[in-house]
Amino acid sequence: MTVIKEILFDCDNTLVLSEKLAFEACAELSNEILEKQGISDRYTGPSLLKDFVGQNFRGMMVSLTKKYNFTLSDEEFDSYVNRELGKVIETLEKKAEPCEGVIEELEKLKASGEYGLAVVSSSALSRVKASIEKVRIDHYFPRDHIYSAASSLPKPTSKPDPAVYFYACEQIGVKPEECVAVEDSKSGATAAKNAGIPLIGYVGPYDEDEKEHMRKVLKDECGAIVVMEHWSEFQDCLKKVKEAVA
């Protein structure tokens, strides 16, 4: 019988409504990259979000280089990553809000003492901490249980690479099957799936016309055991996951 010991939360648009703010902040840099390459296409925050949701900026730049067939040196990559991070953190510290209902559920989980709680994100550690501190949920997570694919690993990566999930499980001291992941994006959900972690999908932040599509993506393509639209559904969803893996 599998016992669930740890809940692993994605951060962006799962705990904190940050993706739109972040993508608005980095669209300018993406367009600068394209302009320097002589490429006429341009992105807005929403169009960038649509194409690259769930990826960190480094992963996004890798995708851009593949899409438009150009290269960037390591020095250029690092320079753009640092500039983007500064822009995004400044924006999040001013405007970030929690996902609706998440604080109440985190409070219930902490009060129960039944599970460990951790954040597992693609975003840089400084951005994740800025987000959860701004919305005042940082105290629900031990400081050493906040993991970043961009910052925590020996080699930076991004979801859908499952490396950050494997790393988090190793550091916490749990097996992947003893965890539950909560993810809103295809890339994040794919990372959890490839790590062998039971998954709860979350579609709350999506526009109404996108929710049904993402529900199918998370369930049919990414193997989510259950998909929730609001955090008030979390306890029921967690119960269904526990029943499915028992």
UniProtKB/TrEMBL annotation:
InterPro entries, A to Z: HAD-like_hydrolase_sf (IPR050155), HAD-like_sf (IPR036412), HAD-SF_hydro_IA (IPR006439), HAD_2 (IPR041492), HAD_sf (IPR023214), PGP-like_dom2 (IPR023198)
GO cellular component: cytosol
Superkingdom as given in the UniProt entry: Eukaryota
Pfam family, one: HAD_2
GO biological process, any: DNA repair
GO MF annotation list: phosphoglycolate phosphatase activity
Name listed for the protein in its UniProt record: HAD-like protein
